[in-house]
Amino acid sequence: MFEFTYQDSQNRVSETRQKNYGKEHSQLLSYARSCPEEYRDVLGWLDPEDWASQEQLARLEEKAKEVREKADAFVLVGVGGSNNAARSVIKALDQRSGCKVYYAGNTLSPYEINRLLRELEGKSVYIDVIAKNFETLEPGSAFRVLRKFLQEKYGSGAAERIIATGTPGSHLEELCREHGYTFLTFPEPVGGRYSALTDVGLFPMAAAGIDIRKVVQGAKDMRQLLWETDGMDNPAYRYAVIRNLLYQEGIKMEMLSFFEPRYRFFAKWWIQLFAESEGKDGKGIYPVAAECSEDLHSVGQFVQDGSHVMAETFLEVRNQDAAYVLEKDQVDDRFDYLNGVDFWEINRKAFEATRMAHSQCLPCFTITVDAIDEYSFGQLFYFFEFACFLSGKLLGVNPFDQPGVEAYKGYMFKALGKPENIE
Ligand code: PA5
Fold this sequence. Notes:
The protein has about 425 residues and is of the alpha/beta class. The protein has a 5-stranded mixed β-sheet with strand order 1-10-9-7-8, with helices on both faces. Strands 3-2-4-5-6 form a 5-stranded parallel β-sheet, sandwiched between helices. Helix 4 links the parallel strand 2 and strand 3. Helix 4 runs parallel beside helix 8 and helix 10 crosses helix 14. The termini are far apart. The site of 5-phosphoarabinonic acid has 14 residues, from loops.
């Protein structure tokens, strides 16, 4: 099950306006589904079957099994699109195997590097370094540190503990050939933030014991839904249409809110997807996240009473998957109204009350999934990726490039003395 709803008691964009705008751009859905020529080289993710077929999954599962059997620490080395999807699933789903996942190549902090090396001491370590062009500073430098660590620890046995995920023909692939590392494919026609359902996202998940077949099934079923429903009945199109109309009405921020902290890293994935895809040419909705109920005690004030520049997207989970009932207590703490009430219910009431209060002053979307599980992550990845494609097109930007991030890299590489002939 997957549900998408929208409410705004201030009716910023009327049903009629939504309908008309939806009709005006009605070609967009079939255009996007057709894998248009102008984006063909970046739309490899459009059909999950292309990079996550049964054979490809079997290959990943086999290697992942080896990692789980031999390692008790698996280090995912990557940044941005190269680690966000896998990390969001691995962190959300309880440890599914004895192999604990660590993260590197997503920071330049020496404190964090030292901390990681300390934590890896005494453990059997495998690493997967993921980089599309293998120029990115964070994963490149962390790989060097971890290679040294593995060589000192395992000598010639280090190579079999190194997996690298890169584009065919890249320098990373050359290194694999030269040194005997395992090479996995970062598909050329898939950008980092759209790579959840390829070796990039799926291999680390599998190494962590996640059932990647269910993730892929969720994505495939979502694709089918988005291919079978037309116009404003299509939830991705409706979401894209309304958020663009809201943008025209001065809504410049969107907050992803959730009442399960397990979504913390999924929110990072979502933020990256929309920020890098839409924030360009002086346009775009700035994506932020709120982990509720905690953040209601901080940003909640701004949301309710601050400048009304924001829309809110709630991630709702339908099925109860945990329980803790508050018992009656001897101490008169004035919380007796909670006697016998399950935290699930308390959390749910907090969500409903928040949505009721916020929807009186903000436009609110709700996306409901059955559970926080492999299948629904697949649904969410595909839903948001496709919606982002549609939304970027409505906004009039290229959702697949990121020219803005190159500017800081230029200054940084210059400051670090990087030779100009290295790409
Ligand atoms: O979505 C993107 O393209 C980026 O966020 C990249 O994933 C990120 O910059 C990491 O790039 P690379 O995989 O080349 O190290």
